[in-house]
């Protein structure tokens, strides 16, 4: 299992709610969280995905992500 971190523009509860179905629906993700208190809005993903796969998922959900 990998732990990956990304800078995102997921910055509030509404944004988290919007991205939740996409991230929860991905079988390769064991768990995830967004630190909205961090200025870089760090998304931490635990699972078996590559950084590129996570960026694609977040982009499909309407947000931006780049490896931290």
Describe the structure.
It comes from Hymenobacter amundsenii. GO terms for molecular function: metal ion binding. It holds the Pfam family HMA. InterPro entries: HMA_dom, HMA_dom_sf. The protein is of the alpha+beta class. It has a single domain (2-67), classed as Alpha-Beta Plaits (2-Layer Sandwich). It contains two helices and four strands; from the N terminus they run E-H-E-E-H-E. The protein has helices at residues 13-24, 51-60, and strands at residues 2-8, 29-35, 42-47, 65-67. The protein has a four-stranded antiparallel beta sheet, with helices on one face. It is globular and about 25 Å long.
Q: How many separate domains make up the residues? A: 1
Overall geometry? globular
Radius of gyration: 10 Å
Q: Give the CATH architecture.
A: 2-Layer Sandwich
Number of helices: 2
- SSE succession: EHEEHE
Oligomer: single chain
Pfam family, one: HMA
Domain HMA: 1-66
GO molecular function, one term: metal ion binding
Protein name: HMA domain-containing protein
Secondary-structure topology with pairs:
Elements: E1 2-8, H1 13-24, E2 29-35, E3 42-47, H2 51-60, E4 65-67
